[in-house]
Amino acid sequence: MTFHIEKPDDGLRGQIQAKIDNLNKPKGALGRLESLAMQICLVQQTLAPRLSHPCHLLLGGDHGIEREGVSVSPREVTWQQMINFTRGGGGVNMFCRQHGFDLKIVDVGVDSDLTPYPAILNRKIARGTENFLYRPAMSENQFHQALAVGIDLVNDCHAQGCTIISIGEMGIGNTSPSSIWMHLFTGIPLQECIGAGSGLDSEGIRHKYDILKKSLARFTTQPQSAPLSPLMYFGGYEMVAAIGAMLRAAELHLIILIDGFIMTACALTACRLHPAAKDYMIFTHSGDESGHQRMLDYLHAEPLLHLGLRLGEGTGALCAFPIIDSSVRMINEMNNFDNANITRYF
């Protein structure tokens, strides 16, 4: 599957900066809002950016590695929460309502029959991945199916007029593949990539480390036929779908809001495949999961928020949206020195 992702054309940078500097404020006084406005203007190639029909993709999938006790939450929580989301009862529902996001709940690989719930889009590839302690999580064909799910979802959002998209996940056990991707793609020691997930104690974290270390040892003895093999060997269906969504969104010049630890691991992987994708991403927060800030540092990404979040679902991305909205309102609605009859003093 081929993506054509280019860095945004830098030709407008001077005009954008001149417009920002001529707003009736001291030069640079609105700090991060100014750099966000610059990024969004370059992505959209305009001096008058807009945020229209914001969409939130909530991708669900189960993980075979959960069977090894690497999460304090049992796997049935995945399908229980997916149903809860259809009733409007999740944190993600509240924030989507608050900020006007079109929420799309998607079953990519949940280990339950969710077809009785029409509010859940059925894109199921299988009922959870394989247990990567013993075998690859998915086949190459399943990997491409998952990528295609993300691509198709973004195409649908784009057709509805979406210019900004956020992505969240629901999948018990998905901090484990995230930690392994982080370790493999950054070189940071595995132990420093593993955290409490949904609430493991210190003994649970040690057990999780032992399981992931054994999984990596088995992986390194497998014949490596393609550079994508770590994605297929350890990934979750919802995670690969997120990567497909991120890459297609960058291809379409959408603003991409990156959430917490798991979505940052997906963003790291997407940028490894296509480095220019990072120019379309806004990293919304640094969460409490161990390793998240380390991964952000590796990506040279400055998160907007530090709220101690570790819920997932994309809630951190949604919480950050008003800041991004403010940056766009700043460049579009704030008066300039000439119109306000104020002396420009710099």
Tell me what the structure shows.
The chain is α/β, with parallel strands linked by helices and 346 residues long. It is 46% helix and 9% strand. Helix 10 (261-273) links the parallel strand 5 and strand 6. Helix 2 (31-44) packs across helix 12, helix 5 (140-159) crosses helix 9 (237-251) and helix 6 packs across helix 10 (261-273). The longest helix has 20 residues, at 140-159. The relative contact order is 0.18. The mean pLDDT is 94.
3D shape: globular
Distance between the termini: 51 Å
Number of strands: 6
Helix content: 40-55%
- What are the low-pLDDT stretches, counting only 5+ consecutive residues below 50? none
Biggest beta-sheet profile: 6 strands, parallel
Descriptive terms for the model:
alpha/beta, 6-stranded parallel β-sheet, 346 residues, single chain, 13 helices, 9% strand
Write the layout of secondary structure elements.
Layout: H1 13-21, H2 31-44, E1 55-61, H3 76-86, H4 91-99, E2 102-109, E3 120-122, H5 140-159, E4 164-170, H6 175-186, H7 202-220, H8 229-234, H9 237-251, E5 255-258, H10 261-273, E6 281-283, H11 292-298, H12 315-333, H13 337-340
Parallel strand pairs: 1-2, 1-4, 2-3, 4-5, 5-6
Summarize the structure in short.
The chain is of the alpha/beta class.
